[in-house]
Give the backbone structure.
Amino acid sequence: MTTPTLLRLAEVGPGVWVARSRRDATTSTVVLDGHGGALVIDPAWDADELAAIPADLAALGVRCVAGLATHQHHDHVLWHPDLGDVPRWSTPGTVRATVEDRAEVVRPLVGDLPDDLVAIAGRLTPIEGERLDWSGPTALVHVHHAHAPHHLALELPDLGLLVAGDMLSDVELPMPDDGDTDLVTYRTGLESLGDVVRRSRLLVPGHGAVSGRPVERWDSDRRYLDDVETRGASDDPRIGLAGMAELHAANVARARGTDGS
Ligand SMILES: [Zn+2]
């Protein structure tokens, strides 16, 4: 077995750095505040990868001043002690879920990550209002319920940046929440992001590649939903990627109203 490569933060735009985990191409995003501070969004995933983020920040001469979790899934609420004891924001609904359903949220991490990392996963603080109270560029919070309830997309309009969480991916099909049995919630959430996608120039999805053409991603997802709903089929190339055939079949069942969940 070869040793998996440890990928480090790479600059994808002015003051915006992204690392991609060896697991599911999960992205960690860093936005610099221009005053020696950094916002760390969805740091992921393995212990060495989490440790590399504060190390890379130190090499850049900055320190983490805040964190952000886009949604309640286990791979988006991770943290590392060296990032510090700073506020880790998320939407109030996500914070509530990580408190009330904590065992459920962290269950996939137990036995998979070191216990100290499991213990600090999901320790979040609710965002007040619709923008982050931080020292960096304006950061607007857009809440929807498509992939998970109370999911947020973070828009940094001065940077033309959209950090989308688990939406708008090149490696994942639209992945509705289990409670979304007919794709209506997913479509509503996707549509709600239309304006912000159109005015953004740089998209960071939760899994996959950073894109300079956010609208293409949004169009792909909408076309996929249209195809699944109108003809129960799609030629979306993502269907051929690992794990996606099952998700596609589940989405077709949702569209037909035969979803069993
Ligand atoms: Zn997710």
Remarks:
- The two ends are 39 Å apart (CA to CA).
- DSSP finds eight helices and eleven strands in the chain.
